[in-house]
Design brief:
The protein is mainly beta. The chain has one helix and eight strands. The longest helix is centred in the first third of the chain and has 15 residues.
Length: 174
């Protein structure tokens, strides 16, 4: 991806997250936090993921801003993702027990691979890569009470080393 595309993505996310004066009741503030776990499912990198997230508020109706941090273990590698996303919350009836969403954002994805020092093609060296990634996410929230709920989501990291992930967890709300 080019630097121009990254700059365009950054500008789009910042504009989407900027509070609107017409929606004074909405804004960016800490509304919840949570724990997440899942799996990175890729031919090159299959890992167990653990991490957390912060619900940073609703600058507009049906738009949530969220930060995400995960660490991945397995497949002779360690990975780390730090990202920010905006999710569009699809309107559903008040009796629905599922709240779907879709969104995206940007993140920094680091992969540190441990190579087998006995293999000729690895030459006994470690391989680290860090790159910006476009994050595409779809999922759903299941409110369990006023104070907490579950979620499940699928995330695709688009970069030189693209990765598909399935994650789920719990969010505690203020």
């Amino acid at each position: 991806m080019s630097r121009t595309l990254y700059a365009l993505i950054c500008a789009t996310v910042m504009l989407a997250a900027a509070p609107n004066a017409a929606h004074a009741q909405n804004g960016l503030e800490l509304m919840g936090y949570g724990f997440r776990a899942g799996a990175s499912l890729d031919d090159e990198l299959t890992q167990f993921l653990v991490g957390g997230h912060l619900d940073l508020g609703r600058p507009y109706d049906n738009l949530r801003v969220q930060s995400v941090i995960t660490a991945g273990f397995g497949d002779d590698a360690f990975s780390f993702l730090l990202g920010g996303e905006a999710h569009y919350l699809f309107p559903v009836s008040s009796t629905s027990s599922v709240e779907p969403y879709a969104g995206g954002g940007i993140g920094l994805h680091h992969i540190s691979r441990d190579h087998d020092r006995n293999r000729d093609d690895d030459r006994g060296r470690d391989d680290d890569t860090t790159e910006a990634a476009l994050l595409l996410t779809v999922g759903f929230d299941v409110p369990a009470s006023r104070w907490w709920g579950y979620f499940a989501e699928a995330r695709f990291l688009v970069a030189d080393e693209s990765v598909f992930r399935l994650e789920g967890g719990v969010t505690w709300l203020y």
